[in-house]
Amino acid sequence: MNISLTQALQSFLLSKDFSLIKEFCLSAHPAIVADFLSSLEPQEIWSVLSALDPHKRAEVFCQIDEDSQVALANRLSRLDLAALVTDMSPDDRADLFRLLPHATQEMLLPALAQAERDDIRRLVSYEEGTCGSVMTSDYAALTEGITVAQAIEELRKEAPDRETIYYVYILGEDRKLLGFVSLKDLIVSNPALKVSDIMHRDLIFAHVTEDQEEGARKIAKYDLIALPVVNDAGSLVGIITHDDAIDIINQEHTEDIEKLMAIGGRHEVASYLKTPALDHFKNRVLWVVGLAAIGLISGMVIHRFEATLAHFMILALYLPMLTDSGGNTGSQAATVIIRALALRDLHLEDIFKVLFKELKVSLMLGAVLGALSYGKVLFLSRSLAIPGDMTLSMIALAIALALAIQVITSTLIGAALPMGAAALGCDPAIVASPALTTIVDITGLLIYFNVARFVLGL
């Protein structure tokens, strides 16, 4: 944030010099203007927005963070809020409406025109997380019977009121989606041709109830600028644009990352500093407490082998190395598998191929880490007193063997858990670190002490 520019804006507000404010807002991208406005109070933000023309005002408002949007909307009069919402794009309008308190929603709806009112009600009726909930009804459509020349003339009339006209959807009776033409198709084609002669019939589309992530994935996979969304009857009800797909992917990535680290909550893409500390606490505490409770099992394992540790303190020295290596290799395997599942690169029937591949990887990792740990024990513990008739090389062998087995089992667990979660219909990210780390810590301790007892004859 440019502090001097923000201070200048506040100075212009105090002096009521709206001409300079308007000049800045018109010369900068709406997102840049929104960044500067975010540091102002809601009343100050509205003073700036009021100086802009309705279209620019709506563009800037849509770029402001959601909390500021709601705070500002709650302060506006019904007519001001209705005018602002009317100029917003249908999908942004619906997103704002979902965030508003019920009382504000009830105040707003009667002030809107019937078309906008019906559009909002239809868009917000779809379940959150579906393609219907993120689509916009702002698209260009034509009938198949007109000529290319007539189509271009129609687009000239529609263009000012449409978010995108690069794809034009061809509709039949009851708005059945028949195909589409691109703006390029229309420009380079013979004006006398029928639109039906040049339209693409190999449609890629999404259903209104389909997961929003699947819709975004289709846009990325097929290099689309927009993805049509249809209902059960095959009628076109909206489109998902590429910019909305980017927002969806960001939201899904945020969700996956937070689940990967056992953070609960709604997984919204929100500013870290603007999220209250109490919300951060609520999102983390349940998993942390739950995993800590499960971690007590590790203490019970150590307590069971307390006599062994007391007699062979050297085993305690290398315990962190074992647990760290198991957690690291298990998390690596889980991360790779979760990503492959998310990208649809793996399917449930591939589980045995996955386990076999990870077994090969873990055997190589186990051999390398086991050899390194064997040398490490011999080098670092050469001056320690070894009790009884034991030798340092025997202890080093026991530690190296336990570490190798731990790496192998942790890698296989890290690969199997996400696949198992997917098979049960759960999110694979939930079973990853630190939940995975807790599990491999327990198994690692059991492996460590039992291998030591077997090799050393304890």
UniProtKB/TrEMBL annotation:
<dbReference type="Pfam" id="PF00571">
    <property type="entry name" value="CBS"/>
</dbReference>
<dbReference type="InterPro" id="IPR046342">
    <property type="entry name" value="CBS_dom_sf"/>
</dbReference>
<feature type="transmembrane region" description="Helical">
    <location>
        <begin position="392"/>
        <end position="417"/>
    </location>
</feature>
<comment type="function">
    <text>Acts as a magnesium transporter.</text>
</comment>
<dbReference type="GO" id="GO:0046872">
    <property type="term" value="F:metal ion binding"/>
</dbReference>
<feature type="domain" description="CBS">
    <location>
        <begin position="199"/>
        <end position="255"/>
    </location>
</feature>
<dbReference type="InterPro" id="IPR006667">
    <property type="entry name" value="SLC41_membr_dom"/>
</dbReference>
<dbReference type="Pfam" id="PF01769">
    <property type="entry name" value="MgtE"/>
</dbReference>
<dbReference type="InterPro" id="IPR038076">
    <property type="entry name" value="MgtE_N_sf"/>
</dbReference>
<keyword id="KW-0812">Transmembrane</keyword>
<dbReference type="GO" id="GO:0015095">
    <property type="term" value="F:magnesium ion transmembrane transporter activity"/>
</dbReference>
<keyword id="KW-1133">Transmembrane helix</keyword>
<dbReference type="InterPro" id="IPR000644">
    <property type="entry name" value="CBS_dom"/>
</dbReference>
<dbReference type="GO" id="GO:0005886">
    <property type="term" value="C:plasma membrane"/>
</dbReference>
<dbReference type="InterPro" id="IPR006669">
    <property type="entry name" value="MgtE_transporter"/>
</dbReference>
<comment type="subunit">
    <text>Homodimer.</text>
</comment>
<keyword id="KW-0813">Transport</keyword>
<keyword id="KW-0479">Metal-binding</keyword>
<keyword id="KW-0472">Membrane</keyword>
<feature type="transmembrane region" description="Helical">
    <location>
        <begin position="429"/>
        <end position="451"/>
    </location>
</feature>
<dbReference type="Pfam" id="PF03448">
    <property type="entry name" value="MgtE_N"/>
</dbReference>
<feature type="transmembrane region" description="Helical">
    <location>
        <begin position="285"/>
        <end position="305"/>
    </location>
</feature>
<keyword id="KW-1003">Cell membrane</keyword>
<feature type="domain" description="CBS">
    <location>
        <begin position="135"/>
        <end position="198"/>
    </location>
</feature>
<dbReference type="InterPro" id="IPR036739">
    <property type="entry name" value="SLC41_membr_dom_sf"/>
</dbReference>
<feature type="transmembrane region" description="Helical">
    <location>
        <begin position="361"/>
        <end position="380"/>
    </location>
</feature>
<dbReference type="InterPro" id="IPR006668">
    <property type="entry name" value="Mg_transptr_MgtE_intracell_dom"/>
</dbReference>
<comment type="similarity">
    <text>Belongs to the SLC41A transporter family.</text>
</comment>
<protein>
    <recommendedName>
        <fullName>Magnesium transporter MgtE</fullName>
    </recommendedName>
</protein>
<keyword id="KW-0460">Magnesium</keyword>
<keyword id="KW-0129">CBS domain</keyword>
